[in-house]
Specification:
Length: 373
């Protein structure tokens, strides 16, 4: 076992000692992310790490504490604005590792929504090296560029904005069961050992600066931005060798798939998913708005009856996908082209497990222009 493998093994051991994660993939991602922060200034992308849970007391803060003790140049905060964030990042090409606890409170709509949008903009631009925030400063309003490139770790209940999560390694936490035991963590007693490990991480990573800069990892099981997000962690895994290259790629594929499944539960994605169910077996290329609403409200465990879905609300929701209602063939009703709906479903939703190529199993009544429904 070489030094890189020993370092990553020891990081993972610390996370297993003090936290309960859902599985091996989460521990792998956390170990690689801690090491990545020490090499971020050598890399092109700075993925965010998103730690979310359905409720409080799921171990987010403890995971943050352990990760911060192991990470490069950490800055802990639970309330930070966009301008404060980019002013905290070194201007000389160095980085900090920004930790934002209770991030969900920063992104809530309301009087602070402009501040939330500013913060989200900084988080998004800081994903890739070379991006910056430009502000007019001083009495002469001189345009001044601020670097936004740095690793960022966010902890939140429920979730964070999708534009940020799309640039993040997403880890979902859950509450520790009664039979799951972790070691108590006390800063004064336990942090020195984590700092010793942090110094070993830094030594190993910085001694391999040239290899990290030159790395072009192959076989990443993702594409586009998802591949960009995981590439820095995979670079670290390939540098260590041993079991880590395979473990990193498995974690990338599985955690990304899990995030997509979770993302599909947002109201917009849920609406598309329910429309997919409603259209199964539909025998016409047109469907009236009122008929589609009836089908949506009739689905088992549907939220749409309680939501009070109306043709206007449906049009507003589908407008986010550039789908608009139109006059149908009879010239009286308004509704949707079922083919447009299907294209949006195929574009935005993954195929249901086991249904690729399957014929629809649910038959609905066919609507025709002369129907009274």
């Amino acid at each position: 076992m070489n030094e890189g493998q020993r370092v990553l093994h020891d990081i993972e051991t610390m996370f297993r000692k003090y936290t309960i994660q859902r599985g091996d993939d989460e521990y792998t991602a956390l170990a690689l992310y801690a090491a990545f922060t020490h090499g971020s200034k050598f890399l092109e992308f700075a993925p965010r790490l998103s730690l979310t849970s359905p409720t409080k007391q799921c171990g987010k803060t403890r995971t943050l504490e352990v990760l911060a003790a192991l990470s490069y140049n950490p800055l802990m905060t639970s309330n930070i604005s966009g301008p404060a964030l980019y002013r905290s990042i070194p201007a000389d090409g160095d980085t900090k590792t920004i930790f934002i606890d209770e991030a969900d409170t920063l992104f809530k709509l309301g009087p602070q929504s402009k501040q939330a949008e500013a913060l989200r903009g900084v988080l998004n631009t800081g994903f890739r090296r070379g991006q910056s925030a430009t502000r007019c400063e001083g009495p002469l309003l001189t345009p001044t560029e601020y670097s936004t490139f740095s690793p960022v770790v966010l902890a939140a209940i429920h979730g964070i904005p999708s534009t940020v999560a799309d640039r993040a390694v997403n880890i979902r936490l859950h509450r520790r069961a009664a039979n799951e035991v972790v070691s108590d963590y006390r800063v004064r007693r336990d942090e020195p050992a984590l700092h010793e490990l942090r110094d070993r991480i830094a030594s190993w990573v910085t001694s391999n600066e040239d290899s990290i800069i030159a790395a072009q990892p192959q076989g990443i099981p993702l594409r586009d931005r998802e591949a960009d997000t995981w590439e820095p962690l995979i670079v670290i895994s390939d540098l260590a060798g041993g079991r880590w290259p395979q473990a990193s790629r498995q974690a990338a594929e599985r955690l990304t798939a899990a995030y997509k499944t979770q993302d599909a539960r947002t109201p917009e994605m849920e609406l598309l998913d329910d429309i997919r169910t409603a259209l199964k077996g539909w025998g016409s290329d047109q469907i009236p708005s009122t008929v589609l609403i009836d089908e949506l409200e009739g689905l088992e465990e549907s939220r749409w009856a309680e939501y009070g879905m109306t043709p206007r609300r449906l049009a507003n929701a589908l407008g986010e996908f550039d789908i608009s209602p139109r006059h149908l063939k009879d010239g009286k009703r308004r509704g949707y082209d079922a083919r447009e709906l299907t294209k949006a479903i195929e574009r935005y939703l993954p195929a249901p497990p086991g249904e690729q190529g399957d014929e629809p199993s649910v038959k609905m009544r066919e609507w025709k222009p002369n129907q009274s429904s």
